[in-house]
C-alpha cells in the first residue's frame, strides 16, 4: 500500500489532478481532462488521464462513484495520513510564544 | 461551405421538443412526419432564426445506445451551445431542475458547464471567447 501511495505522488501530472480534485470534488473524466488541458496547458490524451486516475485509485487517493449514467471522481486524502504517521511532524512554536 | 444542420440523438422526440423549446428556449423550425412515428424535427436559436438548425433525431439505431452511454459515463458532451453568461444560465436551468455533471468552470477566457438534456445526452454551454 505505501509503495502505491508514493508511486502515485511521484508524478507531477497526478499531483495536478489531486490539486484540481481538491478545488472541486466529484468530477467526470471530461472535466478532469478539460482542467488539465485548459488550465494547465498539459497536452495529454484522455487515455493517459484514465491511466493516471487508475494509479491514483490504486493508491486510494481517488475514489470513483457511479450516479445514474455518470461516473464521478472524488478525492480521498486519508491515505496521506500514513506519511505523517511514519514521519511525524512537530509544530515549531511561534517566536512570541517562546519568549514570555 | 457552411454548417447549417447538426443533430443529437434523442430517446423521445416529444420530450426532446419540450426540453429544447420550453427549458432551453430554442424555437421549432421544421416538424415533418417521417415514417410511422418519427419526425424531422429541428430547432433554432431565437437569436438566429436563419442560423444553424439542430435536428432532434430519434435514437432508434442499435449503435446509438452503446455510443451515448460510453460518452455520458465519462461526462463527454455531444454538442456545445453559446451563452452570454454561463453562471446565470446555470442558475436558471438548475432552478428548472436540470442536472449538471460539471458546474461552471472558468478556464482562462472560456467558462463552460455541462448538463443532461434528459433525452440521453450531455450538452456543454460556453461563453464565447472575447
TrEMBL record, chain A:
The HTH arsR-type domain sits at 1-95
Named from the GO MF annotations, one term is: DNA binding
One Pfam annotation reads: HTH_20
Q: Where is the composition biased (Basic and acidic residues)?
A: 83-100
Alphabetic keyword roster:
DNA-binding, Transcription, Transcription regulation
Q: Where is this region: Disordered?
A: 81-100
Name of the protein this chain belongs to: Transcriptional regulator
Species in which this protein is naturally found:
Streptomyces glaucescens
UniProtKB/TrEMBL annotation, chain B:
Keyword Metal-binding on this protein? no
Coiled-coil ranges per UniProt: none
The record ties this protein, via InterPro entries, to: Glyas_Bleomycin-R_OHBP_Dase (IPR029068), Glyas_Fos-R_dOase_dom (IPR004360), VOC_core (IPR037523)
What SUPFAM superfamilies does the entry give? Glyoxalase/Bleomycin resistance protein/Dihydroxybiphenyl dioxygenase (SSF54593)
Sample GO molecular function, one term: dioxygenase activity
Sorted alphabetically, the keyword list is: Dioxygenase, Oxidoreductase
Q: Which residues form the VOC domain?
A: 2-128
Q: Which protein is depicted?
A: Glyoxalase/bleomycin resistance protein/dioxygenase
| UniProt organism field | Streptomyces glaucescens
Amino acid at each position: 500500500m505505501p509503495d502505491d501511495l508514493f508511486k502515485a505522488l511521484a508524478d507531477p501530472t497526478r499531483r495536478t489532478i489531486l490539486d484540481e480534485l481538491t478545488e472541486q470534488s466529484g468530477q467526470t473524466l471530461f472535466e478532469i481532462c478539460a482542467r488539465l488541458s485548459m488550465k494547465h496547458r498539459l497536452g495529454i490524451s484522455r487515455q493517459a488521464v484514465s491511466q493516471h486516475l487508475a494509479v491514483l485509485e490504486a493508491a486510494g487517493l481517488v475514489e470513483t462513484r457511479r450516479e445514474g449514467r455518470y461516473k464521478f471522481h472524488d478525492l480521498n486524502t486519508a491515505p496521506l495520513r500514513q506519511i505523517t504517521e511514519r514521519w511525524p511532524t512537530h509544530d515549531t512554536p511561534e517566536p512570541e510564544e517562546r519568549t514570555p | 461551405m457552411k454548417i447549417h444542420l447538426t443533430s443529437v440523438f434523442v430517446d423521445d422526440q416529444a420530450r426532446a421538443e419540450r426540453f429544447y423549446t420550453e427549458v432551453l428556449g430554442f424555437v421549432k423550425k421544421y416538424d415533418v412526419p417521417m415514417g410511422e412515428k418519427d419526425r424531422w424535427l429541428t430547432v433554432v436559436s431565437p437569436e438566429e432564426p436563419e442560423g444553424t438548425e439542430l435536428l432532434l433525431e430519434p435514437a432508434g439505431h442499435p449503435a446509438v445506445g452503446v455510443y451515448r452511454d460510453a460518452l455520458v459515463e465519462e461526462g463527454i458532451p455531444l454538442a456545445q451551445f453559446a451563452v452570454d453568461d454561463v453562471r446565470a444560465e446555470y442558475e436558471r436551468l438548475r432552478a428548472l431542475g436540470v442536472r449538471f455533471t460539471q458546474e461552471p468552470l472558468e478556464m482562462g477566457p472560456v467558462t463552460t458547464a455541462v448538463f443532461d438534456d434528459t433525452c440521453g445526452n450531455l450538452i456543454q454551454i460556453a461563453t464565447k471567447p472575447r
